[in-house]
């Protein structure tokens, strides 16, 4: 801090920005130098910490980030993407500089981000820069989506007013017209009181809609049978007696359709109705029994019709609800059947018993993702089954690195546990190097079925190009410079298992679960193994594809 | 092929497209499944084969390709980028499908490509699809830049006319107004005949301008001292007695400024005058002595003023030139000084003697790139110092994979020789897995200085974040499943060297140069080593940066 001519304090624009980020809870900025994987790390970090910041280089760096940031945009993850740009005079003269298109048009890259972020700030003018920063960061938090900041190199040290930093950004939830809100609540409550077989269905946008607490209180207060969609896994407290797990229609580990197909009310929170999340639209409740609560829109059906901020509505709903008028339905669901003999199913169930509060569980796309539905989660375990629509392979190992960093910062004793596919591991394996370099702690269970099993189920089991190259996966850590056993206090452990006989002694060893260092388990599974009840949905999709390629 | 109702032959749209690609010389289509690295491979392939084709998946795949294709666009490399899209009806109904933005707007991704490709074809209409394909491929070849094709999944098998395939695409060079061309030629020839100290300066766009043959004939016919810019390395036949190598001003292995600074004519072919290529604009000839020949524009100065197709102009220039009227300047340059003791310089010079005709030499960005200026290339060796402006780290290992595949297809005995940095290797190491999977042959010299030396020179030697994680690089091949020595006829060789005593026996072993299998040499160099004469240019840039950050 310094003092300018009229006696007021100034700070550099960079300090202003980073102070604002710190006020929002950001403690680390991921840099995309040199690879694109750190952007996924930053995504993982954001999912745990609420908001993250990423710094990339003009052109080559930011374009590598596009896929990952687009995924965050699509799935409502808040991120601040700062791009280090050429100096302003380079823009003025249209310089032919590195990482540009060579035609003097230097804002082409920036213009693309209008389609993949919810707000953009071009910090070219010292008079407006801090206002732009404040507006953009506000949009990031309130919309829970990525934003984009262009920082020309000669703006970094420009002096700006320090005084606005004394006032935190205005981020409180937005309020509704009281009269409309009361009318809507009356209608909703009447539906609830009149119902005989209601259930609660929670989807993944509840986190970005910031109603996780309200949804859990609603489920707990009403005692209604509560399910999640795949994308919503981990939102509802797993220890609630009326929470029954993931609703994957007839394709889940548990089949809830005997109850849901005859229900007369579905309260649908934060829906994100993609083809993947909906199991090709097979597990969606009828419109006429559904009341949906979106971030800004509420009503009968899937999309809602009335513009209201959901957080305010839910808080008042919880205040007003008269529990004596609720139907009694707690025991309406059939008991779980855990006798499934298929390998990946058994694996997921057995692993679940080792999860602890504050753990973060991360499931890669493809087979680990549907497998993750079989987890039985204790209270306060976060499950990041990230993707219901973007589904970018290679995302989750770097994301786990970001989560591990967030866990260290939060220091709650929570562990980072990744279930990774062999195919996706090969996409972004070098991010293990970052884990080692920063001495982070993480579990990596590699679900090794030697191929893109998910894709084979979809496109045909005999497609050679869907084979994964045969790596010696457990060598990766040493290759990337990890210390050997006995060299210092940060050491890696590796395990190669193909039977329960191999794996059980490890799982039963309390030292294994101490959460220290990277622990990598190569779990060799059958070539075509995946969650038992998920096979039919993929086979069905594959058959439809072959009959009508237009469906993909 | 089948026959339709009016008796004419039809083929599927996919067959039509792939037949056209085959007619253009494409023999392999790279798929971006699952990673972004194959796009760089495809770039390498294109540089050797002239044109390549890439297939990616809608959304996640194509956005990962953006950085690499943007680099090809900027640096005039012809590529056909085909994106496998959802079916047309998904677009009509605005479906919320995987890899989309979830808002029903399915063409957002496609619209971005207008900025990074020279032509785009949305193959949604069977009536116009083949015409669009033909136009787009023609643009790709004639402009020597990437094009973009959207292929909805239900268009793949649509039947189209086969008959147009009988006529190859019209790709012959475009011709000029004869009168204007003759006038210009007279002026150019008068300047040449009147000059006393002329030289020829060749830049990298000569390849995409398709005038490599004409430029070489011009250099050979006139005998004028001939130099290349960094980006133009490998264009001029290294065995020409009047070709003297790369002009890096005062910062090259050889300093040509005693001659060039007093020259009275510079014939500049295919200029691409970026800040990097021009050594921060220090090695550019004065405008008043320069006649530049761009693809479509010719004239005095750097950019030219007259719209003429250069290939036609050069062919007529070679016909008309009267060699008896040329100044005799063959011996005007000072002899080379090869006594530089610095390691990377010595290394490059010694390695050069092992290059053979048809070899392709690939230099990664950062230290190998300026180091590559020191190579002395025999006839018919291609040097891919790719980047003069895009400079995306991690590009060259996958590019080498693409080159190795092209070498196998061409079957000339030429080898693929990569000089890779340790930092860039970590970005895209998994592409070695593709080399192994397809049993390709390649040399990988890893210039291992434990850090981003280039960046340290630029930003300060003490910047910890510029350190590269310490990998055991030579384990990579085994980790990725390469067979060990003695297991079958495809085996890898690895070498760990830090002195000439380690390296010389290997270089002198003819078996080492047999070109079989992957051979990886970990060359441990001094932390801050790089081409001797390149150090000052980076130091200068770094000093300027610290004094005025606006210059980056």
UniProtKB/TrEMBL annotation, chains A, B:
Residues 43-92 form the Thiamine pyrophosphate enzyme N-terminal TPP-binding domain. Binds 1 Mg(2+) per subunit. GO terms for cellular component: cytosol; nucleus. The keyword Lyase applies. InterPro entries: DHS-like_NAD/FAD-binding_dom (IPR029035), PDC/IPDC-like (IPR012110), THDP-binding (IPR029061), Thiamin_PyroP_enz_cen_dom (IPR012000), Thiamin_PyroP_enz_TPP-bd_dom (IPR012001), TPP_enzyme_TPP-bd (IPR011766). Gene3D superfamilies: 3.40.50.970, TPP-binding domain. Its cofactor is thiamine diphosphate; Mg(2+). Residues 385-522 form the Thiamine pyrophosphate enzyme TPP-binding domain. It holds the Pfam family TPP_enzyme_C. GO terms for biological process: aromatic amino acid family catabolic process to alcohol via Ehrlich pathway. Residues 186-304 form the Thiamine pyrophosphate enzyme central domain. Keywords: Decarboxylase, Lyase, Magnesium, Metal-binding, Pyruvate, Thiamine pyrophosphate. It comes from the Eukaryota. GO terms for molecular function: magnesium ion binding; pyruvate decarboxylase activity; thiamine pyrophosphate binding. Belongs to the TPP enzyme family. PANTHER family: PYRUVATE DECARBOXYLASE (PTHR43452:SF11). This is Pyruvate decarboxylase. It comes from Bimuria novae-zelandiae CBS 107.79.
């Amino acid at each position: 801090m310094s003092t300018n001519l009229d006696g007021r304090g100034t700070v550099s624009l960079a300090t202003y920005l980073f102070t604002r980020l710190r006020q929002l809870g950001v403690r680390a900025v991921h840099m995309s130098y040199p690879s694109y994987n750190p952007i996924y790390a930053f995504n993982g970090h954001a999912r745990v910490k609420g908001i993250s910041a990423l710094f990339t280089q003009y052109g080559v760096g930011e374009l590598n980030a596009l896929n990952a940031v687009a995924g965050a945009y699509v799935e409502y993850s808040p991120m601040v993407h700062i791009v280090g740009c050429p100096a302003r005079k380079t823009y003025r003269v249209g310089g032919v500089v590195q990482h540009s298109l060579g035609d003097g048009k230097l804002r082409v890259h920036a213009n693309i981000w209008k389609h993949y972020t919810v707000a953009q700030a071009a910090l070219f003018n010292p008079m407006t820069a801090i206002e732009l920063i404040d507006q953009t960061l506000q949009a990031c938090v309130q919309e829970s989506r990525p934003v984009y900041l262009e920082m020309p190199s000669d703006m970094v040290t420009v002096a700006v007013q320090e005084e606005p930093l004394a006032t935190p950004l205005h981020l409180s939830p937005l309020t509704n017209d009281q009269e409309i809100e009361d009318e809507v609540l009356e209608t909703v409550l009447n539906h609830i009181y009149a119902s005989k077989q209601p259930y609660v269905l929670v989807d993944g946008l509840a986190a970005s809609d910031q109603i996780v607490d309200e949804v859990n209180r609603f489920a707990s207060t009403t005692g209604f049978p509560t399910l999640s969609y795949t994308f919503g896994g981990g939102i509802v407290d797993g220890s609630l007696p009326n929470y029954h797990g993931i609703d994957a229609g007839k394709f889940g580990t548990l089949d809830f359709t005997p109850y849901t197909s005859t229900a007369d009310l579905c309260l649908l929170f934060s829906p994100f109705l993609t083809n993947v999340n909906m199991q090709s639209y097979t597990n969606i409740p009828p419109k006429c029994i559904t009341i949906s609560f979106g971030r800004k829109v509420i009503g009968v059906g899937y999309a809602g019709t009335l513009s209201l901020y959901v957080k305010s509505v839910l808080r008042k709903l919880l205040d007003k609800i008269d529990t004596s008028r609720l139907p009694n339905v707690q025991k309406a669901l059939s008991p779980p059947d855990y006798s499934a003999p298929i390998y990946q199913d058994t694996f997921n169930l057995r692993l679940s018993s080792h999860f602890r509060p504050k753990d973060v569980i991360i499931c890669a796309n493809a087979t680990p993702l549907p497998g993750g539905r079989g987890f039985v989660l204790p209270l306060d375990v976060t499950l990041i089954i990230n993707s219901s629509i973007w589904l970018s392979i290679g995302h989750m190992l770097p994301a786990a690195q970001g989560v591990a960093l967030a866990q260290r910062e939060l220091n709650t004793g929570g562990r980072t546990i990744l279930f990774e596919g062999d195919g996706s591991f090969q996409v972004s394996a070098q991010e293990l190097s970052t884990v080692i370099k920063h001495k982070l702690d993480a579990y990596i269970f590699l679900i090794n079925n030697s191929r893109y099993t998910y894709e084979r189920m979809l496109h045909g089991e005999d497609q050679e190009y869907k084979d994964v190259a045969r790596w010696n996966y457990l060598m990766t850590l040493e290759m990337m410079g990890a210390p050997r056993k006995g060299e210092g206090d940060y050491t890696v452990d590796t395990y190669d298992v193909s039977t329960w006989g191999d794996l059980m002694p490890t799982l039963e060893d309390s030292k294994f679960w101490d959460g220290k260092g990277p622990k990598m388990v190569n779990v060799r599974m059958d070539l075509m193994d995946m969650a038992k009840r998920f096979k039919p949905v993929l086979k069905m999709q594959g058959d439809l594809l072959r009959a009508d390629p237009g469906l993909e």
